[in-house]
Amino acid sequence: MADLLLGLQWGDEGKGKIVDVLTSNYDIIARFQGGPNAGHTLEFDGIKHVLRTIPSGIFHANSINIIGNGVVIDPVVFQKEIEGLEKFNIDIKSKLIISRKAHLILPTHRLLDAASETAKGKAKIGSTLKGIGPTYMDKTGRNGLRVGDIELTDFKERYRTLADKHETMIKFYDVNIQYNLAELEKEFFDAIEDLKKLDFIDSEEYLYNAQKAGKTILCEGAQGSLLDVDFGTYPFVTSSNTTAAGACTGLGIAPNQIKEVYGIFKAYTTRVGSGPFPTEDFGEAGDVMAKVGNEFGSVTGRKRRCGWLDLVALKYAVRINGVTQLMMMKGDVLSGFKTLKVCTAYKYKGQSIDHLPYNIEPENVEPLYTEFKGWNADLTGMTSYDQLPKELVDYIAFIEKEVEVPIKIVSVGPDRKQTIMK
Ligand code: IMP
Question: Quick check: 105 and 73 in contact, CB under 8 A?
């Protein structure tokens, strides 16, 4: 059996922290989609560390970490990520294994991402520019290079054919992208040599045998449900399935083997990049959330857009993923607000609706809010549920009633220790 943990909003919910907190309960932590567009932040013992492609179980002594077939790997970013872990004295080779079927991000994928975004102008997605979209395009277009291809004798020729094609495509965009491909390729092939030092596996087979042997598995999602290529706010989404189904296709775990689905959400909402965001707050409240919550992208450094909790969107994500337990992050950031707002319905074509319609652009939906009394207490030192202020307990109870799933963890700060189990 496997449990699954994923984000229910537009990413940055704090998945890295929760995986890290839960890791000691699992033998295996497996990433199933996305790539270096992710930045999973972990804080413990005064150390803050951001992981990109490597699963968040890497810091725990006994867990094996798997990068699944659904992930896209940039060897160059990966090499730097491994170097960044050197100071922790982790035996990476014994703790980290990679699916041969995971696709490789080539330097030209990154360039194509930049060319595509530049050509889109104002309509740009706001991509992290890590080459994610073009790599998944090559995967579904059946042109991609996979980790297993590195072991083939003609890997370099295969690389050349694809990179040459990409150069033609970059020219097609007719935008000014400056690059030195020879330099980028040197960096890429150096990083490939380092990647080869790790073990490549057929991860679906490995996970099948692990399940048979009674090992516990946690599948770690990246980005958030509203960035899912099918169910998110298309086209302002990422290029993978960030929802529960992605764990099946991205690891080869059968649907009936998934038990708990942990859904992570922030007590408010953030979004980075372009696209609709009905509860975005352009006033003081949004500014306070950004400042107190330190809402800056861990990968791009961009300021995140902030706003109130959107229960219409949260319910949608809970249903699509079959969430069985909720985890609410950053409750501490809402301390000090006199009044809190929660969106419980949208005004859509003159009517009040409580489901997510096809189009949530601002001209189509207006959020309808329920107001709550705020609290003033500093939550960051609290360690048990009965210490939480009554107003926060009411806020939590309201969400649970609306969404019909219990909130089992309330996070009151970035550190591992600032985690309240209910
Ligand atoms: P891409 O996946 O880098 O192409 O980015 C597509 C959209 O998803 C952009 O709006 C990004 O800001 C957003 N995005 C991608 N990865 C993350 C993430 O890990 N957290 C939050 N937003 C993300």
Answer: yes
CA distance 104 to 55: 17
**Distance (Å) from CA 114 to ligand 1 centroid:** 14
* Digitized pLDDT (tens) for each residue of the chain, 422 residues in all: 999 999 999 999 999 889 888 888 999 999 999 999 999 888 888 888 999 999 999 999 899 999 999 999 999 999 999 999 999 999 999 999 999 999 999 999 999 999 999 999 999 999 999 999 999 999 999 999 999 999 999 999 999 999 999 999 999 999 999 999 999 999 999 999 999 999 999 999 999 999 999 999 999 999 999 999 999 999 999 999 999 999 999 999 999 999 999 999 999 999 999 999 999 999 999 999 999 999 998 888 889 999 999 999 999 999 999 999 999 999 999 999 999 999 999 999 999 999 999 999 989 999 999 999 999 999 999 999 999 999 999 999 999 999 999 999 999 999 989 999 98
Question: Which atom of ligand 1 sits closest to the CA of residue 240?
Answer: 2
301 C-beta neighbours (distance < 10 Å), count: 9
Task: Let me know if 250 is exposed, middle or buried by CB neighbors in 10 A (0-12, 13-18, 19+).
Answer: buried
Which helix (H) or strand (E) is 26 found in, with range?
A: none
Pair 365, 278: CB distance under 8 Å: yes
Q: What is the Å distance from ligand 1's center to 238 Cα?
A: 6
Q: Which of 40, 103, 223 to mutate to test the pocket of ligand 1 (most atoms within 8 A of CB)?
A: 223
Alpha-carbon span 4 to 225, nearest angstrom: 13
> How wide is the angle at C-alpha 262 spanned by C-alphas 385 and 376, nearest 5°?
35
Which of 286, 373, 384, 374 shows the shortest CA–CA distance to 335?
Answer: 374
- The helix/strand/coil state of 271 is strand
Residue 330 has which token pair? 């950053």
List the Cα angle 419/87/206 in 5-degree steps. 70
pTM for this one?
A: 0.96
Who contacts 417 (Cβ-Cβ below 8 Å, separation ≥6)? 44, 383
